[in-house]
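Reopening this one. Same input as before:
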Amino acid sequence: MKKFLAITLSVILVLVVIVGCAGDPAPATPTDPAPGDTAADPAPAAPDDDDPPADLGDDVVQLSLWHYFASEQEQDTMDRLLAQFHSEHSGIHVTATFISRDDLLMQYTMGAVTGDIPDIGMVDNPDHASFSAMGVFEDITDLVDAWGEKDYFFDGPMLSTMFEGRVYGLPNNSNCLALFYNADMLEAAGVAVPTTWDELEAAAATLTDGDTFGLAISAVNNEEGTFQFMPWFISAGGSIEDLGGPGPVRAVTFLNGLIESGYMSRDVINWTQGDANMQFMNGLAAMQVNGPWNVPTINREAPNLNWGVSLIPRDQVYASVLGGENFAIGANPTCRDSAFTFLSWFMSAEITADWSESTGKFPPRSDAIQLRDIWTVDPVFSVFGEALQYAMPRGPHPRWPEISNAMSTAFHEVYTGVRTPEEAMRTAGERYAELVS
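Same output, byte for byte:
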């Protein structure tokens, strides 16, 4: 771990960044690069916090919050809940700023050296341990214990907030992946909803027609692509600990075969999950693998689309992957108590249920699930609820970003014809062994 931190810090010391502290204006917010843009990205500009109201008063604690919730529904819900928090807590004002996920991770990495980090920060759950180890997030074990609600959180999401037995944040939401299908297309083609890989390949072949592909996934070379790749090799009997084994090799071979056969677009290597969902909504993909956060988008932007959801077709077993985000307090003891006041409010049972229902996510706490029927009765969300039992977590491990990179590099090399499945996955397995040794 010391070697890992030393290497990381020595690299980022060469970067220069100016980041606004809580309440301070800063340069413009970085924008997301276009999908498929392979040019080297410059170091991200510091986030541009929305200015808080000028008349807050000197006795109001002003907190900065960074997040990468990008959809209109997510941002509208965040604004609504912040307004509710401010109405209930007149002595605290939280200013939320959107930063793309990749840029936010870079800001945290640089903040490990500069100390320029938000009072409250969002983090993808597999990355939490890494940034905790780097000193970016505050150890809040004492505050969580005093709060007394830790046991309401499911074990997997809560575990993702921990490093070396200490708590460095709270889970905000959980999710997983399932298969979306265009019911009208399947019916017109006489195709049943596939439940196995063989059925999926046959269905994708039949449903591929002209500009419409049978299946869409995200296979972009980053964590998003890794997230989408994991269910396939888990289903084939593989594991992260044996990336060079027969399961991962079989999975990447199967997916590459769908591309080579023309049943999936070659552009999947550039598609985010949002891009795959756009293909599905526009009738350019008869099926897609995606998550429940896209449900509000489909309902809003494609209200006439006749679609359904099922478990991802299996090879040996059904499988999915555990996703979700956490929130942590930046390593800033000055506003620690006020930041936890917001954190514990935002992750309370009622607010968690409200947030998750509004944004198409799943609550990470058992009592919140009981507050709404949608997660057990709704024909779409109940399927995701079933899929969660098959969802494997990513890590947690302080070296997860590098482990994930080894995986995404491997399948990208296969899909672009640079290496064979056996060669690429063997290299990924060797890299994993180096990282965890």
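So the earlier flakiness isn't reproducible anymore. For the record, The chain has two domains: 2-29+42-174+323-392, 178-321+399-436.
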